[in-house]
Amino acid sequence: MADRYLSLTGTAPGRFLTRRLGLPQPAALHRWSPDRPALDGPVLHLTAGPSSLDLAPVLARTGLTVTTRRPEVAAAGDPGAGGTRPADGAARPAAVVLDATGVRDVDTLAGVHAALHPVVRSVAPSGRIVVLGAPLDPADHHQSAAQQALEGFTRSLGKEIGGGRTVNLVRLTDAGAAGSTLRFLLSPRSAYVSGQVIDVLAAAGSAPQADAPQADPGRPLAGRTALVTGAARGIGAAVAETLARDGARVVVLDVPQAEQDARSLAGRLGGTALTLDITAADAGERIAAELPDGLDVLVHNAGVTRDRRLVNMPAERWSSVLDVNLASVLRTTDALLAKGTLRPGGRIVATASIAGLAGNAGQTNYGASKAGIVGLVRSLAPRALAEHGVTVNAVAPGFIETRMTAAVPLFLREAGRRMNSLAQGGLPVDVAETTAWLADPASGGVNGQVVRVCGQSLLGA
């Protein structure tokens, strides 16, 4: 369903009216397209505090023009040190990358303000701010306090910056391991991802260390096989289309009732269709039998809702949602790992939800199932990497424009659309782009992460 309010605010009278009434003013987002595959403008690379990161090779691979400015180390408390304004007539930066990995105390934390304060207003519409931080040091509570402060800073800046701009924090120790993450966050593919904190570690085990140059950077999944559950329509179809665009051979899995849609989509993508009940006890074994050569990417997208307040919820509504959304994910994942169907360097991406992080009235069953996905990811990720060379992550969509949300009553639908920093609903492709980043062979350093695709929801976690 079209967002008529978003269309209205794109007109001069609409902007005037909403400004006078103090109403949200969402900006049209720059999403990836073949015609506009990159952000419109240069990247400004700044530093707060001392840093040993060599970001130049990583930023060069974004395809954007990069201007690096390393100010002299500021005297403590100097509010002007580190600040830099674009020169007169220079293009507005489409993105700012602030290296704050060297921030270790409150004094050096002042360098974050000093660096961003003069330039934040100049960031182009639909621009990006990415703050790079370091893992918290358990032996240094001053460093931990300063680095944790970056989380509150980035999330707060994301809620005030406006104009379709996003702000995210990446904690890392190795710039090379963060290459795919920075390329994603500094691109139109991350249009609906904001206010996130992403930990990137040096890739380990047999997962690709990867940020090596690829034969075809536009098709990072070439030669890889991906299976997407619940893929015949909606978000699942968008995920299948995006993975195929990136070069994967896609297996479109859905229930027998959706066989026609599944075969149509698979035919269009040059993939194959597989119809089965994902809740069947032997679903994992049947998938493994259909993929004798193995699997590289497993996307758990299948899900159902059976909403009702707990006091009115019969046991069948509870158990059917938990079985599809959580139990089937656990059974299938266990089976495919045990059989070695997922090859070393593989990726598991599960679908959680904002409802599992923040809760939602009338969805105790759904919220429980999606919170369970978060627990699965956090527990399985280190073991799957160590034992199988496979990473495990999740996407957690917020309000996404689908047929399901189109059926929500008008006022609830409008509230859902506006209750995030971008003041609009996301699109299925936003979830798909995030899934494709996590599926990238170069994303071996991203493991055990739950990334919200919610435009930075104003409520909840």
Automatic annotation (TrEMBL):
Which intervals of the chain are annotated as region Disordered? Answer: 70-90
Entry keywords, A to Z: Oxidoreductase
Q: Please list the residue ranges annotated as the Ketoreductase domain.
A: 224-398
EC no. given is 1.1.1.100
Q: Which residues cross the membrane?
A: none
Q: Which GO terms describe its molecular function?
A: 3-oxoacyl-[acyl-carrier-protein] reductase (NADPH) activity
Q: Which PROSITE patterns match?
A: ADH_SHORT
The text of the family note is: Belongs to the short-chain dehydrogenases/reductases (SDR) family.
The protein depicted here goes by the name 3-ketoacyl-ACP reductase
